[in-house]
Amino acid sequence: MAKKVMKKLDKITARMQAKDGSSTASTARIDGNLRTGLIFLLVGLIVSLFAGISGIFGVIGAILAVIGLVFIVLWLLDQA
User: Fold this and answer.
1) How far is Cα 9 from Cα 39, in angstroms, rounded to an integer?
2) What does the alpha-carbon distance between residue 46 and residue 78 come to, in Å, rounded to a whole number?
3) Fewest beta carbons within 10 Å, which of 3, 10, 50, 76?
4) Does residue 45 contact residue 69 with C-beta atoms inside 8 Å?
5) What pLDDT does residue 7 have?
6) What gap in Å lies between CA 70 and CA 34, rounded to an integer?
7) What is the pLDDT of residue 5?
8) Residues with Cβ < 8 Å from 71, sequence gap 6 or more?
9) Transmembrane region positions (predicted)?
10) Domain-by-domain residue ranges, the chain?
11) Residue ranges of the chain with pLDDT lower than 50?
């Protein structure tokens, strides 16, 4: 009887560990599209700060920011 109870407990703990391990691994890192989108968006905003020096920096910054927003939207669509 004790062996049966121990086998059931081992099975239950194995299931619990498998569920916990997969959920922590997926929440610990940022997805590729989100990370890429945030990087492009931030670089675009930083480059656009130099628009006072030359107008081309504003255009390049705006293009990079739009590309970043596209990657963020792609990430959002993957989540749905």
Assistant:
1) 46
2) 27
3) 3
4) no
5) 80
6) 10
7) 76
8) 33, 34, 36, 37, 40
9) 36-53, 59-77
10) 1-29, 31-80
11) none
> Would you mind telling me the total number of residues written for the chain in this entry?
80
Token pair of 6 as six digits: 């121990």
**What tokens does 4 get?**
């049966």
